[in-house]
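Lecture 7, part 2: worked example. A protein chain together with adenosine monophosphate.
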Amino acid sequence: MNPSDPLPYEEALSRILSAISPRAVCQVPCGDAAGRVAAEDVPALLDLPPFANSSMDGYACIAADTAAATPNHPVCLRIVGESAAGHAQSAVVASGQAMAISTGAAMPPGADAVVMVEETRPCADPAFVEILSPITPGQYVRSAGEDVQKGAIVIDAGTLLRPGAIALIAASGHARVRVHGTPRVALIATGSELAMPGEKLATAQIYDSNSLMLASLVREAGAVCGPQIRSTDDIQSLRSVIEGTTLQKADMIVTTGGVSVGQHDYVKQLVSETGEIDFWRVAIRPGKPFAFGRIAGRPIFGLPGNPASAFVTFELFVRPALRRMAGHADCVRPTIGATLTETVEHEPGRKSYVRAHSEWVDGRLHTRSAGLQASHRFRSLAAANSLLIIPEDRSRIVSGETVSVLLLGPE
Ligand code: AMP
Ligand code: MG
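Predicted complex, written out as structure tokens:
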């Protein structure tokens, strides 16, 4: 391969990921940890459940006592008190006895099962209860440690903390958890044609839609947006914007536009002057004019200006980098096998990422193009919920073929 050739996608991604490390670790209250990534293995500080308890409202008793019970010939047990949730109960249940018990209350010593209230009948003498059917030992008993044993690792380092994981960590005895910092991204949109949405457009202007799209993608990736700046295609103004971001609080800089071979494309030149370019150009469609480098110790991603190209290069390169920074063990979206439901023509030479619409039909993913694919078009971008990957050597993929798809979205 000639050194000036565009890099294959895989090499570009691996160069990016090897240049990025997870952000520093901090400790946060469990209540603030949703969406963060565990920075270390989390051990259980206690058994779950912590003590044997009932999974039903009913009566704790000895299963063998109920062997002969039927609705016509119920077994009568003497009630020896109550075990209520949150109250210690040390009284022992002996043969011929039962203790009223509520869901989550501790099993009294001696009892080995629970008969649910619906399988009982009150007796004329309120000191007794009638059991209508036999139960087996252990029935409706949640034993101590059956879910988690004290000392076991309940969450692995690198795990995204979803609400269920927060519940597990809290139940395991932790009030706080160590997580990685959330990456903060500075966004710079370049282009003298750009106006803010809401402003009146002058001749030859367009709205800066990339900034809003990229800010949404940053948030969707679990990161936060730092400064959002626009620059004209003027080398002095772009220089001061790029140099200015190095003073801003940001872990990463993402630019759009001005990274190709046009006369006013200064991003590469300014990154080389202020920091260094690692590589420029990737053999993908859309998104070939993409640059990656460093400025003042921070990664900088130069995305192309065309909206579809900016979107795809963010998905393929910036998102995995943000996930690595946030500490995720898995940084790259999995590819999923899908059935193509229409024939797609393809120009060989570069690996393509077609904006596509995919849906599950009878447990199989069906995929079709989301519309015309030129990289300035918004309709197919807005209609896409997935990217269909077409290998560089294919000129056509026929309806019915199995293809690889990336499903877009938060996870
Ligand atoms: P460039 O990469 O600067 O050559 O821009 C390529 C195309 O993307 C041009 O048609 C630009 O007008 C358009 N473009 C650049 N930046 C943006 C932006 N922030 N929002 C929408 N379109 C843009
Ligand atoms: Mg431009």
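The pocket of magnesium ion (ligand 2) is lined by residues 190-191, 233, 257-258, 305 (CB under 6 Å). The chain has four domains: 9-23+182-325, 33-47+153-179, 53-142, 335-407. Keep this in mind for problem set question 3.
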